[in-house]
Amino acid sequence: MSLDGKVAIVTGAGRGLGLAYAQELARRGASVVVNDVDAAATAEAVAAIQASGGQAVAMVAPVGPTETAQQLVSTAVDSFGRLDILVTNAGVLRDTVLWKMTDEDFDTVINVHLRGTFTTVRETVRHLRAAGEGGRIICIGSPTGQRGTFGQTNYAAAKAGIVGMVRTWALELKRAGITANTVVPVAATAMTATVPYFAAAVRADENGEPMPAFFRHELGFGTADDVAGLIAFLGSDAAAGITGQVIGIGGDRLQLWTHPEAAVTAYHEGGWSYDALVEAWPTQFAGAVQSVGERFPELPEEFKAAAS
């Protein structure tokens, strides 16, 4: 099933994951608006898509402002006559522990990831609802938004917020035939290149070598191209019945994340007083306390040197 005749916007598409998404959508037949803040990278991305026989135009601007969202939609419609798919991928990092994080660190990440997703989706949905032909909203999440990561208060808040918005949008947009899903990629990118644990995998990807099976299979960690197929699938008619989901992908692994549910439910006549909690917690609740952060298996010996 191709994407012939479809038109997509991909934010943050100048390089890395966003570029892989834009290239795969174009390869499947979609015309693509390539957005990024780096004019040179955006021009190179458009040229690469066109050189491969695809259709693409550039739109250089930072996401977050409503004006950017409006320009993205108008660029798609003016250039290709319609709009069908939005992929909100643009992002930045300002990592530091809570007590060292500045207001600017927090606001910058929230503005690009969370507000940028909100404004771009809002403008896209206004167009899609008026057009009356349905559509696809694909927002990029992160394991950090699902589990938490040391030093990423701002990023965790933004990515968890995106998941909450997508679940709400799935409810609001159902009657209009517009799906909304979150993709949680795990891949070798500029963001993961700084994590020592993934060093051997990132090095292999940079050298054009096959990524070791330990990373691809055990960790679900792969290349940007490994994620792109899911993006194209969710943008297609084959995914018309899939909405409100959080789907993790990386390497050889695909995961359908659960929505939060109560791990334990208990009742106490008259309510839960301090004394009642002191008595009941060890036997009724302590065994179900949830873990935080991602837990990785020990690196095999052959990869430890790269991580040191």
Automatic annotation (TrEMBL):
It comes from Micromonospora endophytica. Residues 6-194 form the Ketoreductase domain. One of its GO terms (molecular function) is oxidoreductase activity. PROSITE patterns: ADH_SHORT. Keywords: Oxidoreductase. This is Dehydrogenase. InterPro entries: KR_dom (IPR057326), NAD(P)-bd_dom_sf (IPR036291), Peroxisomal_Beta-Oxidation (IPR051687), Sc_DH/Rdtase_CS (IPR020904), SDR_fam (IPR002347). Belongs to the short-chain dehydrogenases/reductases (SDR) family.
